[in-house]
Amino acid sequence: SASMYVMYIKEGTYKEYVTVPRTVTNLVMIGDGAAKTIITGNKNFKMNLTTKDTATMEAIGNGFFMKDIRV
């Protein structure tokens, strides 16, 4: 899409896995600060996953931007 989409993420710790696929473009994610807005996961190679599959966040869509969020 040519439009920009802004997603505000409130402060907190999110135990999530985030994927921004190639089909999602021009997405901006803004948090309340890297010390306040945290996305965390716990996947690891001991779970028989490849390194790529342990990512807490993957963003491959064009035009992606993230600010004030810690991953």
TrEMBL record:
Subcellular localization, as worded in the UniProt entry: Secreted, Cell wall
Protein name: Pectinesterase
Pfam families (UniProt xref): Pectinesterase
UniProt keyword terms in alphabetical order: Aspartyl esterase, Cell wall, Cell wall biogenesis/degradation, Hydrolase, Secreted
Catalytic activity reported: [(1->4)-alpha-D-galacturonosyl methyl ester](n) + n H2O = [(1->4)-alpha-D-galacturonosyl](n) + n methanol + n H(+)
Gene Ontology molecular function terms on file: pectinesterase activity
Source organism: Phleum pratense (Common timothy)
EC number, UniProt record: 3.1.1.11
Domain (Pectinesterase catalytic) ranges: 3-70
